[in-house]
Every structure is written in C-alpha cells, then in structure tokens.
Design brief:
This protein has about 290 residues and is mainly beta. It has a single domain, classed as Jelly Rolls. About 5% of the residues lie in helices and about 50% in strands. The chain has one helix and 27 strands. The protein has an eight-stranded mixed sheet, with no helix packed on it. Strands 3-4-5-12-7-10-13 form a seven-stranded antiparallel sheet, with no helix packed on it. The structure holds fe (iii) ion. Fe (iii) ion binds next to strand 6 and strand 11. Fe (iii) ion (FE) binds near residues 75 and 112.
C-alpha cells in the first residue's frame, strides 16, 4: 500500500449534529438504514441520500432491487462485503463484490436491477446519491464498475488505512474525480489510538458515518451506526478524527449546488414539471 503524510491542519471541523438512521425497506423488501433522508438534502447538498445495508440474514436482502428507473443524479454503490449483480436497460451488466464500487451517472435515465448473488453470508455496503447540476441532469447515462483493487489506498505513519473512492485525500487521487460537486468519498480504517486528518474546503458540506467502533471529532463522540454532520466553519481547513478504539467509517464531502431540489422517488429534478416529464417518459418507454 502507498504511504502518505497527513496534512497538519490549522483547525478541524467539529460535529454540528449527530443523526441516527431510520430503519426502512426498499426494492423488493431489502432491509436497510436510511442515514441521509430527504430532510437533510438541503443541509448536505449535493448529497440526496445515503443508505447503509448490513445483514447476514438473507431474508433482509435476497429479493434485491428489481428493475427500477433513475433520472437526474448519480449513484455510488460501495460494497464492503457481498456480491450484487446489476443489469441495465442499455444491456450493461456487472458484478459488484467485496470492496468494489459502482459509479453511475443516471443522467436522463437508466432502468436497472440490483440483485444479490448470494444466498447466505454477510451483505454490507452503502449507496450514496449525489445530485447533478441542473445543466447535467439530462446528460447521457454513464457507469463504471471498480474492483476493490482499482480503488486507490494509502496508509499513514499514524496507522490509518484509507481507501479513496472519490476526490483526493492527503495527495492521493481517488478512483473517480467529478467536476462541479467535487465529491470526496473516503473509507477510513483506524486502529485504536490513531489520529487521522484530511483537508476539506470549508464550503464543502461534509459528514461521516461510523460503521465499526467509535471515533471522536473535536472531543465529540460518534458511535457506530451514527452520522456526524460536520460544521462548515470558515476557519476550519479539514477534519481530524481520533479513534480511542478501532474504528471504521466513511467520510463524504461535496460542494453544494444551491439549486432547487424536487424529488419523486427515483427522479430528482429542479422543477415539478420535470418530474411530470420523467414519469411520462418512464410510462411511455422513453426514459431509457
Ligand atoms: Fe438503483
């Protein structure tokens, strides 16, 4: 693994608010925790949704997500454990497994299915929705699968191991770089006693979600299965995360679009009329 020297920050962001996810069910009956819900879309602009799924009970995941549409945003599916097969209306197919990631720009429209390809064992991961700027909502769809080996990683002298899914961290460029929203998406593994820092522009909205152990940011504790929304103080040039016990978390940040958000299920546009158009296109077979 590459090594990187972590930046020395002038000041770390602090935890503005802790959020507990909401247990829900989606697709054909997949149990998951919705961590970023509609109420937080404005505060965490450009992010629209974060679902965490994790279960070793096949009843919680086996039915998967049969054919469904998307329009107007990007989806990033990061698989910590398990296998998910996806197929879309354009004839693309791929298998997402242990440590891999799929980045999809739904743009003007994709109809796809996401179906587990295992009948037992642990299925764990995240799906994040990233908004598209108004001018790109009807872009040509695009997606790419990244195997675990294709996600850049680095280690620090302080013991952190970091996977850079998007953006860059401590000089290491991630698997995906996006213009406009400039998303940063890190999977951070910390041994007990480690301290980790990474720079973030203070204008980026940012949050972390702890999925193992617990961490502290500015003296505030964030336990497992909790999201910590990070403050946007202008004098803070990044975030410092302290792990008193071994911990794993994702850190997500992006530049807000400050555009109207109108969501109807899997369609996220700027105006109600565009939602009507999306529904009309979907029902008449013109979406994808
Ligand atoms: Fe989907």
């Amino acid at each position: 693994m590459n090594t990187a020297t972590q930046t020395t920050l002038k000041q770390s962001r602090s935890i503005e608010r802790l959020v507990q996810g909401v247990a829900t069910s989606d697709g054909a009956g997949v149990s998951l925790t919705r961590v970023l819900t509609g109420k937080l879309q404005r505060r965490l602009d450009p992010f629209l949704m974060l679902d965490a799924f994790g279960s070793d009970d096949p009843d919680d995941y086996i039915a998967g997500f049969p054919d469904h549409p998307h329009r107007g945003f990007e989806t990033i599916t990061y698989m910590l454990s398990g296998r998910m097969r996806h197929r879309d209306s354009a004839g693309h197919e791929g298998l997402l497994e242990n440590g891999g990631m799929q980045w999809m720009i739904a743009g003007r429209g994709v109809i796809h299915s996401e179906i587990p390809e295992q009948e037992d064992g642990l299925m764990e991961g995240f799906q994040l929705w990233l908004n598209l700027p108004a001018g790109n909502k009807m872009a040509v769809p695009w997606y790419k699968d990244f195997s675990s080996a294709e996600i850049p990683e680095y280690a620090t002298a302080e013991g952190a191991a970091v996977r850079v899914i998007a953006g860059s961290s401590n000089g290491v460029a991630g698997a995906v770089t996006r213009e406009v929203t400039e998303p940063v998406y890190l999977d951070i593994h910390l041994p007990a006693g480690a301290q980790f820092s990474t720079a973030l522009p203070h204008t980026h909205n940012a949050f972390l979600y702890v999925y193992r152990g617990a961490v502290q940011v500015g003296g505030e504790q964030v336990d497992a299965q909790r999201m910590g929304i990070l403050s946007n103080a202008p004098e803070a040039d990044g975030v410092t995360i302290v792990a008193k016990e071994a911990a794993r978390l994702i850190l997500v940040a992006g530049k807000p679009l400050n555009e109207p958000i109108v969501q109807y299920g899997p369609f996220v546009m700027n105006m109600q009329e565009e939602i009507h158009q999306a529904l009309d296109d979907y029902r008449s077979g013109r979406l994808a």
